Amino acid sequence: MTARNKAAKNNILDGSVPQQQDCYEGERLVHVLKSIQRGVESARALAENSLPEKVWLKQQFAIGVNDVTRVLERMAPTVENGSSAQSPCVRLQAILLAADCNPKWLIKHLPTLALSRKVPLMIVRDDKKGSLRLGELVKLKTAIAIGVKARGNAINQIIQELLDGDEVNQGALLEVQ
Questions:
Q1: Domain ranges of the chain
Q2: What is the pTM of this model?
Q3: Which residues share a beta bridge with 167?
Q4: Euclidean distance between CA atoms 138 and 147, whole angstroms
Q5: Please, what is the Cα angle at 79 between 78 and 83, to 5 degrees?
Q6: N or C: which end of the chain has fewer CB within 10 A?
Q7: 25-78+86-176 belongs to which homologous superfamily?
Q8: How is the beta sheet containing 61-63 ordered, strand by strand?
Q9: How far, in whole angstroms, is CA 95 from its chain's centroid?
Q10: Long-range pairs for 50-54 at CB < 8 Å and ≥24 separation?
């Protein structure tokens, strides 16, 4: 077990949200959320269907703790070599999780479940407004957890750049279009 996994496990056991380098706050959070919002707008513009926006958003994201949990549970756990026994219908690329969830036990299971499925967590911390900021992404008042579904679009490209530690820039969106 790596040091990062041990730290995540200890945080899970005491009920706290992991505090790792994948915690976004301040200017970094603003930059990340604006980048993801541009990705959503770009992917929506490229979509050739006439679905209502709320339906289209549900195709791109698992919204809310229950929906994220449901999708994670349907994904097969990955074995040590990184492959899964079966390929799921829907796979999450990453989970955006608001650190201001109260009570904490509502999201206590998500880090363990995400770790077993090899889905990275991106913690959003914004002085008791993280859930409001996540809600803005999916046109809701608040959202404690948002799972980004792997669909191969501009949203996924931006999330992958964030996970790789690269700076998201405007050129990435231009390449997709």
A1: 25-78+86-176
A2: 0.77
A3: none
A4: 11
A5: 65
A6: N
A7: Ribosomal protein L30/S12 (3.30.1330.30)
A8: 23-24, 121-124, 92-98, 145-149, 61-63
A9: 2
A10: 53/139, 54/139
